[in-house]
Amino acid sequence: MDMLSWIITALIAGVFLLDIAKLFLKEPVEEEQSFRMIDIGKSMTIGSREVQEDQVGTAETSAGVMAVLADGAGKAYGGRIASRIAVDTCIDIFKDYNAFHNPQHYFRKAFHCANREILKALGDENRGTASVGCVLVSKGLLYYSLAGNVGIYVYREGNLVPVSSGHTIAVLAEERFREGKLSREDALKLLHNKRIYNYLGQDGFRDMELFDAPVRMKQGDIVVLMSDGLYELIGTRELEAVLLGASSCQKKAYDLIELVNQNPGEIKDNASVILLGIDEA
């Protein structure tokens, strides 16, 4: 097998493993589980940037918990404003709407409303945009939505398993190659392209990535939302080592961000994380 064929095979295998991981997380059980209050942890760092463009937020009702992480980008303070609007909009609509009655409707309403508000506040899309990941957890079920490249994972039994795919050119190339719409040579050229093609703050905002079925959670699981400033800088094994500890989710969130702060690299992006720990009643 030549090198080109080997790389394309690895590309397909990577996507296949992601599909298998999602199936592993969605294994059916006969009875619905109930859970105590979810342990929440949040932390951020500015890295080596001049402006903190990441924003995080959580909200709780008697029905469950919502968490949202936005990674802004833009000129001056445009990225910070865009991410703040996205987080505030998701929280406001969550408080005013029974999100758990119809999670998909909630996600669509929140994301499209946030997109309109960002455009209204900032005008030209080049002035401020945001990648946004949002999750709902209720009665032992995880629902998620994503626009951009915020990472959504479930930490289970020592393994950090990706739930979301994201909206980078590399992911789009993988999808087109699997559909037979892109040659292996063209797919290879785009394999490492991290540019985002879908995000909030643009007139041509596309529909977000949505869960196809809720993920059934287990005791000891941790829902993890991360910006790329964390997951692209710190290796998976290092992240898993922190999540394995017996400390609270808040302590783990601090420790994850400290990995970024202590990293010897001179250029470090904003980094943020939200952890939702699941305890069985």
If you had to describe this structure to a student in words, what would you say it looks like?
This protein is an alpha+beta fold and 281 residues long. The chain contains 8 helices and 11 strands. The chain has helices spanning 3-25, 78-96, 103-122, 169-178, 184-189, 228-231, 236-243, 249-261, and strands at residues 39-45, 54-61, 64-73, 129-138, 141-147, 151-156, 159-162, 209-210, 215-216, 222-226, 271-277. Strands 2, 3, 4, 5, 8 and 9 form a 6-stranded antiparallel sheet that branches. Strands 1-11-10-6-7 form a 5-stranded antiparallel sheet, sandwiched between helices. Helix 2 runs antiparallel to helix 3 (103-122).
Q: What number is the mean pLDDT?
A: 82
Straight-line N-to-C gap: 53 Å
Strand tally, please? 11
Following the backbone from N to C, one meets helices and strands in this order, namely HEEEHHEEEEHHEEEHHHE
CATH hierarchy class name: Alpha Beta
Strand portion: 15-25%
Report the C-alpha radius of gyration, rounded: 18 Å
How many structural domains does the protein architecture include? Answer: 1
Q: Which descriptors apply to this entry?
A:
281 residues, alpha+beta, Phosphatase 2c, domain 1, disordered N terminus, five-stranded antiparallel sheet
Outline:
With 281 residues, the protein is of the alpha+beta class. The chain is 37% helix and 24% strand.
Please specify the SSE layout and strand pairing.
Elements: H1 3-25, E1 39-45, E2 54-61, E3 64-73, H2 78-96, H3 103-122, E4 129-138, E5 141-147, E6 151-156, E7 159-162, H4 169-178, H5 184-189, E8 209-210, E9 215-216, E10 222-226, H6 228-231, H7 236-243, H8 249-261, E11 271-277
Helix pairs in contact: 2-3, 7-8
